[in-house]
Amino acid sequence: MSSPNKLEAATLAHHKEATDFDDKTSKHMGDLDGLVTAPGVEIDAATNKRLFWKINRRILAIQLVTYFCQSLDKGTLNFASIMGIKEDAKLVGQEYQWLGTILYIGILAGEYPQNFLLQKLPLAKMLSVNVFIWGVVVSCSAASTNFASLMAVRFLLGFFESCVQPAMMLLPYLTLCGIVGGLLAFGVSHFTDGPIKNWQLLFLVLGIVTCIWAVFIGIFLPDSPVTAKCYSEEEKSLMIERVRHNETGIRNKEYKKYQIVEALTDPFVWCCVMLITVANLVIGGLGVFSNLIIQQFGFSLLQTQLLNIAQGAWLIVAMIGSAQASQRSGQTCLMMLLWTVPAIAGTVVILVVTPNSSNAGGMLIAFYCTQFFCAQGNMIISLITRNIAGQTKKGITMTMVFVGWSVGNLIAPQIFREKDAPRYLPGFLVHVVVYGVYIGLVILTRIVLMAKNRRKVEAVAEISHDLAFQDLTDIENPNFRYVY
């Protein structure tokens, strides 16, 4: 059960479900029933690798750039926090924190309608329209000069960005944080004598770039690898075959109520919801306050913006490293625990060491260590995509996880109280407690999955793939094995 195969299974399953009743798509999928019922064939390693990269050269590249735009647009508030937005917009008390929270309230508000439309409309076109609209919203943020108007645009940004999380969960999932953001913010920070503030220019530039990228998405992103014109019929057949061994199915023509019940009563599903919620109590807060925290170590505005570049590179290393370690070791839960250790160490240093000019570098390294925890989101999603089967159950699980992700992120900024600035020590103390809770949840999740596998082995010792396309859940499919 390789992770790339699993993720493509989820992608193909969603697109087939969304296009079952589309006559135009049906012409491209005419032989699908025969492919599904036909005896399985072996695909050699070289062909498997070629198919994987051919699919991902286009889809993964567009996904990464889109996530890059989302990360920049969503994180612009963090860049602007040290560029004078708090003073220019006359933000007082917890108002800055609420600008972080309202984004995720908007995401929660848009989650249901966006998910509904993603199931009914072509995914690529739906994504393109939403990206364009949120680019317009980001540009309009440049004209927002008080708390009320900033709250409005942040809510709308969250509403239209809510399409990206479910859309990207249906495509091969990988997150990318922007090194470019720090470089762009550094350049814009030099703009001091123009008709608008430098933080307003930052919003304007990023919004326009996002709108331009939305047009590219509409042109180049296929609605499904199986129906894309850039793949031959033979390649499409082999794509279907690659899914067979994953035991997660490829289509679902009906909404199965028993799978809803199973999702709501499965302890593993609730473990995942709690994991993503608790993890983002830390991740969400660091995302909104990282520049303010780094600056109080003694760095200037321009130095802090430049340090975003190093922070982005550090974060990429942490995320890729977690993915590689999980894949090679086959021990995702253990890697989740291991990646929590540097974050705890860095947080403890920030709590006990007082920043001064002589230890600024050490404090920065301590803060960078907390960024290891940001990789937890990817590893949690990896657990879900590899251990949940049944299309209705997967849909319900992803919805629950998405809600948990949003709730964690909307609470996170409130952990840092304005009265505790600039060091926010009580907030970091809460983070230490959160790490402890998270470690307990990871251990519980591993125990749950180990118990599930023991029951599977006791029931069926020899695995076959005869039920691969029957849309069975992971619990009812005797051939399914959990990976943790």
Automatic annotation (TrEMBL):
Localization of this protein: Membrane
Topological relation to the membrane, as annotated: Multi-pass membrane protein
Major site of localization recorded for this protein: membrane
Transmembrane segments annotated in the record for this chain: 96-112, 132-157, 169-189, 201-221, 268-294, 300-321, 333-353, 365-384, 396-416, 428-449
Any one GO CC term of the record: membrane
Top-level lineage group: Eukaryota
UniProt feature coiled coil, ranges: none
Keyword Transmembrane included in the entry's annotation: yes
One Gene Ontology molecular-function label: cysteine transmembrane transporter activity
Keyword terms: Glycoprotein, Membrane, Transmembrane, Transmembrane helix, Transport
InterPro entries registered for this protein in UniProt: MFS, MFS_trans_sf
PANTHER family referenced in this protein's UniProt entry, alphabetically: HIGH AFFINITY CYSTEINE TRANSPORTER, PERMEASE-RELATED
Full protein name: Major facilitator superfamily (MFS) profile domain-containing protein
Species of the source: Cylindrodendrum hubeiense
